Amino acid sequence: MSSTLAVPLVEETSQSAQSTPNTRRSTVISPTHVTAAMETSRVYKISRRDEDEESIDSGYSSSGWYTAGGVGRAGQLSAFFNTSNMCVGIGILALPKALEFSGWALGVISLLVIAVVTFYSVRMIVAVSAHLALQDVDEDVDVVHTFHNGRVVTPGYVEVVRRCLGVPTGILVTTLLCIAQLGANIAYLIFIANSLYTHFGVPLQSSLCWSVVLLLPLCCMRSVKKFSVFSLIGIISMVIGLIAAVYWGVSSVIGNSDHKPQYESPALQGANWHTYPLFLGIASLSFEGVAAMALPIENSMADPSKFKNVLGCAVLLILVLNLWFASTMVVAVSEFRQDVPGVITEAMPSGAPVSQLVSVCLSLELLFTYPGNAIPLFKLFERSRFSTRTFGDMSRSSRIICFSIIRIIVVAFTGVTAFLLSDYFDIFLSLVGSVANASILFVFPGLCFIASSTHEDDKRRYRFAAVLVVSFGIAVAVIGTAIGARTALHGEVSAV
Fold first, then answer.
1. Residue limits of the Amino acid transporter transmembrane domain (predicted)?
2. How many angstroms separate the CA atoms of 317 and 217, rounded?
3. What pLDDT is attached to residue 475?
4. Structural domain 76-147+157-490, CATH architecture
5. I need a surface site. Which of 37, 177, 187, 350 has the fewest CB within 10 A?
6. What pLDDT score does 293 carry?
7. Torsion angle (degrees, nearest 10) of CA 49, 124, 174, 343
8. Please, are residues 463 and 450 in contact by the beta-carbon 8 Å criterion?
9. Per-residue pLDDT, 48
């Protein structure tokens, strides 16, 4: 037994439904034909033939129908909310400042472009994951643990990168994911501390210390599943906070209709090319969660062929929310001041009830999102080879104590870092987005697709699109990091 053929269902036919999972005709292709996963229903026929067979028309010794992904029972609505929820966080809260870096018109156009590139980038990494799952079947069709009722479990993001680009690149991606998540958690604490100081007069040191104290028991939980109630509270708090903030923005504009806005504000200029790269880092951060979580969400769906629709709707919702919130806040803030603060709640009236409501709700959401970001990273470390070699000989209780101490140290480190960077919220986020998020979102999905699309039947237009995605990601990462580092070193934050 030497070769396996994957058959995507792509054309109409009159053959009976008893012979295939549906009534479409099958076109025989190689499992290395990765672009097929960009177009088909994700249902494939895996057929085996003997080593001495020279033609695919000579017959098969065995065959079966398999679906790439979709081992769960989640519906489209559940997958849609899970995908959308990945990106409603610190990225959207920093976008008003990002629009000041880019200028309003250039920022809106750029967000549209980033949304489109994100959609195709995520589809590429999902297609490569399906292609690798079929190759696993090609190597050993009898490996039971990779199948669930004819559905092939697709590998995750880091595993896809490792298999396509090598072990060192997989380690690099893991490092970038850690930087992205730790950077986001530090930004959460900066936002919380500045908001509470502005509207409640709580000193930065006190708010950061209390935040760390509250986070320690949450981050020492052994499973994210126990955190579902806190996650729900966080989502509700975020919705209330965003609605209250937009309400303040709209009422401020309407209530000051006779007041001439500060149209010299950089945020209301058409384009600010000097600080535009800083915008790209923050914008990349606002979409990055889609790429990292697309594969487990697609795997959880009962019908993975619908993930394309789910992804499109989720990206559209994220885009609309980003534009809605950022544009409203920029216009409202420009009524009163020339610059847009990095922590957007600092622009709201100090001590006003609506300001305090927004501050509390957004702080709660970020506080409860922190463990959801941190625990998977802790799990990744605890299951690593380094941890196995270092703590493998200990008893289970001793390992748990050591791992808990490490978690406490990491949480405390983010608190100290947040205090040191409390005045550089926007620049810090831009650097994190450029250094880590742009590569995760654009560069590696495109590179994996290029590395996989080597079959003669692979369509060139997809390879060309992948090259464009990679080029875009590299430009954002390199230019954004360079300008962000220069700005951090020299303090050049003005978009004027």
1. 75-482
2. 34
3. 94
4. Up-down Bundle (1.20)
5. 350
6. 73
7. -160
8. yes
9. 43
